[in-house]
Specification:
By secondary structure, this protein is of the alpha/beta class. The chain has 13 helices and five strands. It binds adenosine monophosphate and magnesium ion.
Length: about 280
């Protein structure tokens, strides 16, 4: 199954999240039959990231958004854990600092955009400025409502500069969120993840859903598509995301750069050095 086609939000279409089955797992009963496929994609991911880095001409930006406990951290661990740290970075966007808040909302985001040859993963992103900012009325409607176009222009600019953009909404159900909150309470090693805001935000589930639907619908473009990933099953989420990233990188048809030296000549010099070392 080609997940980049199945889960991509077509530009101009209207997403209805309650119509997307968060527990979808394709043909798989459970993780066991998917493991081989997951391993194959993660291995390929590493090769392709190496090629992106070696080519040094283009970059990849992965944006992750979700409700609390939606699996952003786990996805990062899975996808990035299989990349070479040289050339791959994660940025987490929190409540803006005083300095960040003194600038336009894209200021801090632009600085984190990947340079040539790099992969950047955004754990939250500029979309918070049309999500939490809208739901909690941090700015008036006349401000946030203009941000969708600004975001599209910004992302277009990055694309024109050689950045491939993939945006993932990790879709979990409200029941699954509660189950994950429970696991956090039951497991002392996860207590640090619990935040009071988890429960406050949960009370705004419907408002967030509406804000996500608008953001995804208005900002899924040809150059920077949104993918709605069924994420109740962590292993399926990993499978789908890694397959989509592999497909995108493959379609970029990257090439190793031509050597900057004459390899035959270098080979001769190597043999001379080898002979000299034997004397
Ligand atoms: P976490 O990712 O769990 O560490 O939480 C980060 C918090 O920062 C979340 O509650 C986000 O909603 C919040 N946050 C991120 N970006 C913004 C923003 N632009 N404006 C307001 N809050 C934000
Ligand atoms: Mg959190």
């Amino acid at each position: 199954m080609k997940y980049h086609k199945k889960f991509r939000v077509e530009p101009g279409s209207k997403v209805r999240l309650h119509k997307v089955d968060a527990s979808y797992k394709d043909k798989h009963e459970d993780q066991t039959t998917a493991l081989g496929e997951i391993e194959r994609y993660t291995r390929r991911l590493r090769e392709l990231q190496y090629l992106l880095y070696a080519e040094g001409r283009r970059s990849l930006l992965i944006v992750l958004q979700a409700m609390d406990a939606g699996g952003k951290d786990g996805t990062i661990n899975h996808v990035l854990g299989n990349m070479n740290p040289q050339g791959a970075r994660v940025y987490g966007f929190k409540v803006p600092s005083a300095q960040e808040a003194a600038h336009d909302f894209l200021w801090r985001i632009h600085q984190a955009a990947p340079g040539r040859g790099e992969v950047a993963i955004f754990n939250r992103s500029h979309y918070e400025d049309v999500l939490v900012a809208r739901v909690h009325k941090l700015v008036p409607k006349r401000v946030w409502s203009k941000r969708y176009d600004l975001i599209n222009e910004f992302e277009h600019n990055l694309t024109m500069n050689g950045t491939r953009i993939l945006k993932f909404y990790l879709h979990i159900s409200a029941e699954e969120q509660l189950e994950r909150f429970k696991q956090r309470i039951d497991d002392p090693d996860r207590h640090w993840k619990i935040s009071e805001s988890d429960y406050n935000e949960r009370a705004y589930w419907d408002a967030y859903t509406e804000a996500f639907e608008d953001a995804i619908s208005r900002c899924s473009t040809k150059h920077a598509p949104w993918y709605v990933i069924p994420a109740n099953h962590k292993w399926f989420r990993n499978l789908a995301v890694s397959q989509i990233v592999v497909e995108a990188l493959t379609s970029m048809k990257m090439q190793f750069p031509a050597p900057t030296v004459d390899i035959d000549e270098i080979r001769q010099r190597y043999h001379q050095a080898e002979l000299a070392a034997q004397k």
